Amino acid sequence: MLTGLHAAQLAWLLLAGVTLDLLLGEARRWHPLVGFGRAAQALEARLNRGQARIARGLLGWSLLVAPPVALCWWLAGHWGMAVHVLLLYFALGLRSLREHTLPILSALRAGDLPLARTLTGRIVSRDTADANASDLAKAGAESLLENGNDAVFGTLFWFVVAGGPGALLFRLANTLDAMWGYRNERYNLFGRVAARADDLLNLVPARLTALSYLLLAPRGGSVRAWRCWREQARSWDSPNAGPVMASGAGALGIALGGPARYAGRLESRPALGCGPDAAPVDILRAWRLVLFSTFLWLALAGSAAAVLKLGGVHA
Question: What is the residue range of the signal peptide feature (predicted)?
């Protein structure tokens, strides 16, 4: 661990950060990531032009990520555990996942398809204007499973590695990937560093997330999750989203992926999982899989701290 924190301290800090997130959710006003996003937009508008777009993207990424992470590393060294907890709280998005996806389920159950389309359109980039209930359920479940890694488990992993500054590094890099990491004319070169940095930071936590979904698969779905992970993940464009979503879809025993419309154009995406098409209730099942996986990570951290303490190991 790069922070000098003991295992027991890390376990308690993880619990505190997750608890704060579940109790308070994202800050409604003055959220640091909102200001960060605006700064990223302004900097991209200035740098993403002319020649040497990859180098300009590297410069933009460095200017946005390095200073706040270095500042928070200094603050954590001087002010201690409170800084670590606050950084973890701000970087986590567990409650936000619930708040953005379960209302889709409520709208579908109420038969309010227009509202469900509007709510789904806020969290995915695909077109939802003509989506049916199954399409919306699929989009909600996919968003939960993938963002379980991006908004929760990647953050927890890097917190264990490098404390609050590590969690902040991961969330800022993930945010820049979401803003710049597109393979289109505007961002293909400028956003390449952001995309590759996110891929690298997600390499380990994404596979731990997929393993967590496999271990907590309901009704004996672990074998199915492993088979989908092994056979389907490599066909997905993202090297990290593939294992996460294939394992999650297999664990739930539903079909995800497949055709989806983006910017008016139908794209044929690889199939994920196995079983029937996603139904509205699968949004709730995906949320529970993410939530229980979070509890599993907290339990493992607490158990590791207890074992080390009993063994007299000062770690």
Answer: none
